[in-house]
């Protein structure tokens, strides 16, 4: 087993005892990155990482991230390192500043080894729409199954053991869904917990920066390093981060009308098995109905709100401020050429949906109605959570779908089990995917969602679940 | 709600300063019609109109103003290094007026 495969605390002990150096770890991570066939990197920052790691000589005993290699989704700005958000519209853009999360990890002396692929501008859930093409699920070596998105590359690099952790972003389910499809832990914290300064925005009312790891015990370590107020992001909360060492017998809520949309089979059996084991550990399982009419409204509401926000936020990607310049007779023509050539079809469709929903004649019946539905859904989520500590549900209805099924078209009758993760974005609640099992060699997961700003109990519940499944640390291709 | 047609779909694209070909417009038209139907159905949810539109999940409490902090500006080299069009050590921008 490599040091890279261990939980952060154990890698740290090895570094402090000088059994291994940051340079050794970085070289190994880079070797694994270059050998990867998953199309998970936009940019491997080999020279930058080696230079940074070489300068780390004396271990910092109180700093658990000192010398640890990691990767970051390419929609997070990195000073001096290209940042494209996997979009041709940002080709050649090299930020002159670091996103706050990158700056915080730099202060902790964690080593950035590369920028990872995403669905273009973080829109999309298949990991296929970025300008470098599809990112592959490490668990399917035939490259027929997706890993999901939009944080496809970050999920792939953690799931294949290249780095112990990676940063992502989550607007609808973009961390948790790919984490579920690749058998790792994916964290979306409370909205406003982790600064979004330097994140290319998709839909700021629902955007979150989060992370992937393979060990539940790493969750609070990374959270403490990343969370906290940021004067550069005034939506960032100043509420203190609190440790949790309370009782681990939780009241866990299962939404029966979401479960009704889950077909019978391996995933259902594994999920129900985990409920029984949680009960054995002293947890109480509470079954509730959410309301099918609200569940059915989640996905169209999400598409309208996120597209509307995106069409406004990304108006600055015009070929003048960012990305390749296309000459024209007027600046409008130059912008139109840059935007027509820079954005893929999916992005243009999403922007057009947003523009349409925001137009004067449709605003009330589409955009404002979607905002009212969101309000109603959030009220219901908070009402449900009064009955327990967490909502616990399967992350998706199946293992990672085949690429041939990845249409990136709106579903006519969205299955609640495939879209309930959006509840966490609407309500801003912390939510984590945990690995649950395998079907035909492909992983699947379950997601816990807790109360706002109560990440501590959620991390404790994740540890409990990891104990039950025995899947802590698992990744594709691991060696004993 | 205004009727959704290929023309209105094109208008939406033009407002955003990009072109869409006919196939894309047809795909978009289908999605908009589906979304409209789904939102019309959602409009029947009891009690919906009594809910205020939600903008953010929580109130953004900005209780203090940020102090001015002197910062070192970017160097000239740092700035022009990001431009693909430079003349006389300055960024050459496209003509936008006149």
Short key terms for the protein model shown above:
heterodimer; A: 480 residues; alpha/beta; Amidase signature (AS) enzymes; 11-stranded mixed β-sheet; 16 helices; 13% strand; globular; B: 98 residues; mainly alpha; two-stranded antiparallel ribbon; 3 helices; 2 strands; 37% helix; flat
Corresponding CATH superfamily of the domain at 3-233 and 431-439 and 458-469 in chain A:
Amidase signature (AS) domain
- Euclidean distance between termini CA atoms of chain A: 5 Å
Helix content of chain A: 25-40%
The low-confidence runs of chain A, each spanning 5 or more residues with pLDDT under 50, are none
Low-confidence stretches of chain B: none
CATH architecture of the domain at 3-233 and 431-439 and 458-469 in chain A: Alpha-Beta Complex
Biggest interface and which pair forms it? A-B, 69 and 52 residues
Strand order within the widest beta sheet of chain A: 1-3-2-4-6-5-10-11-9-7-8
Strand content of chain B: under 5%
CATH topology heading of the domain at 3-233 and 431-439 and 458-469 in chain A: Amidase signature (AS) enzymes
Mean pLDDT over the full residue set of chain A = 95
N-to-C SSE series of chain B?
HHHEE
Overall strand count of chain A: 11
Largest sheet of chain B: 2 strands, antiparallel
The helix/strand order of chain A is: HHEHEHEHEHEEHEHHEHHHHEHHEEH
- Give the CATH class of the domain at 3-233 and 431-439 and 458-469 in chain A: Alpha Beta
What quaternary form is this? Answer: heterodimer
- How many strands, what sense, and barrel or not for the largest sheet of chain A? 11 strands, mixed
Structure overview:
- The complex is a heterodimer of chains A (480) and B (98).
- Chain A is α/β, with parallel strands linked by helices and 480 residues long.
- Chain A has a domain at 3-233 and 431-439 and 458-469: Amidase signature (AS) enzymes.
- Chain A has helices spanning 8-16, 22-35, 46-54, 100-107, 152-159, 176-182, 219-226, 256-259, 266-280, 292-313, 331-342, 345-358, 363-385, 416-419, 422-427, 455-469; strands spanning 41-44, 69-73, 111-116, 165-170, 185-188, 208-213, 251-255, 284-288, 390-394, 431-439, 442-449.
- In chain A, strands 1-3-2-4-6-5-10-11-9-7-8 form an eleven-stranded mixed β-sheet, sandwiched between helices.
- In chain A, helix 2 packs antiparallel against helix 3 (46-54).
- With 98 residues, chain B is mainly alpha-helical.
- Chain B has a domain at 6-46.
- In chain B, 37% of the residues lie in helices and 4% in strands.
- Chain B has helices at 6-15, 22-42, 76-80; strands at residues 86-87, 90-91.
- A two-stranded antiparallel ribbon of chain B has the order 1-2.
- Chain B is flat.
- The two termini of chain B are 39 Å apart.
- The mean pLDDT of chain B is 85.
- Chains A and B meet through helix 10, helix 11, helix 12 and helix 13 of A and helix 1 and helix 2 of B.
């Amino acid at each position: 087993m490599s040091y890279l495969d261990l939980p952060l605390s154990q890698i740290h002990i090895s570094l402090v005892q000088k059994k291994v150096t940051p340079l050794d770890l970085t070289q190994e991570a880079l070797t694994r990155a270059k050998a990867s066939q998953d199309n998970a990197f936009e940019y491997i920052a080999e020279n930058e990482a080696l230079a940074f790691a070489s300068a780390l000589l004396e271990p910092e005993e109180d700093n658990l991230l000192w010398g640890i290699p990691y990767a970051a989704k390419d929609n997070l700005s990195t000073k001096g390192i290209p940042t494209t958000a996997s979009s041709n519209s940002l080709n050649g853009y090299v930020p002159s500043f670091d996103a706050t999360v990158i700056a915080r990890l730099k202060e902790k002396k964690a080593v950035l080894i590369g920028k990872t692929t995403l669905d273009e501008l973080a829109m999309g859930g298949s990991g296929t729409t970025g300008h470098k093409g599809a990112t592959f699920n490490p668990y399917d070596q035939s490259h027929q199954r997706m890993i999901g998105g939009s944080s496809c590359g970050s999920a792939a690099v953690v799931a294949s053991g290249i780095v112990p952790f990676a940063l992502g972003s989550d607007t609808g389910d973009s961390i948790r869904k790919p984490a579920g499809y690749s058998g790792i832990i994916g964290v979306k914290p409370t909205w406003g917990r982790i600064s979004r300064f330097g994140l290319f925005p998709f839909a700021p009312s629902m955007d979150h920066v989060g992370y992937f790891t393979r060990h539940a015990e790493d969750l609070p370590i990374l959270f403490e390093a990343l969370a906290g107020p940021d004067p550069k992001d005034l939506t960032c909360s100043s509420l203190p981060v609190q440790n949790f060492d309370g009782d681990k017998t939780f009241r866990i809520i299962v939404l029966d009308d979401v479960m009704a949309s889950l077909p019978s089979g391996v995933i259902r059996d594994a999920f129900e098995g985990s409920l029984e084991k949680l009960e054995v550990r002293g947890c109480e399982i509470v079954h509730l109905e959410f309301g099918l009419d609200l569940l059915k409204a989640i996905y169209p509401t999400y598409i309208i709100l996120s597209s509307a926000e995106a069409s406004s936020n990304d108006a600055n990607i015009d070929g003048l401020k960012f990305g390749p310049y296309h000459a024209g007779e007027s600046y409008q023509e130059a912008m139109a050429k840059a935007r027509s050539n820079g954005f893929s079809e999916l992005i243009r469709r999403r922007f057009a949906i947003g523009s349409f929903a925001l137009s004067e004649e449709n605003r009330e019946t589409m955009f404002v109605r979607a905002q009212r539905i969101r309000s109603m859904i959030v009220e219901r989520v908070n009402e449900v959570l009064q009955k327990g500590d967490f909502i616990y549900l399967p992350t998706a209805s199946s293992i990672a779908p085949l690429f041939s099924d990845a249409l990136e078209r709106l579903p006519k009758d969205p299955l609640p089990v495939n879209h309930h993760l959006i509840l966490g974005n609407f309500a801003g609640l912390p939510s984590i995917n945990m690995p649950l099992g395998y079907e035909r060699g492909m992983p699947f997961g379950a997601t816990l969602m807790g109360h706002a700003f109560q990440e501590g109990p959620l991390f404790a519940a994740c540890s409990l679940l990891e104990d039950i499944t025995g899947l802590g640390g698992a990744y594709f291709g691991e060696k004993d | 709600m205004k009727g959704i047609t290929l023309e209105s779909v094109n208008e939406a694209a033009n407002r955003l300063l990009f072109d869409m070909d006919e196939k894309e417009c047809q795909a978009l038209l289908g999605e908009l019609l589906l979304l409209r139907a789904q939102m019309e159905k959602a409009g029947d949810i009891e009690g919906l109109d009594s809910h205020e539109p939600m903008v953010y999940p929580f109130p953004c409490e900005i209780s203090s103003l940020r102090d001015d902090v002197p910062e070192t500006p970017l160097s000239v080299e740092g700035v022009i290094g990001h431009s693909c069009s430079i003349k006389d050590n300055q960024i050459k921008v496209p003509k936008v007026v006149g």
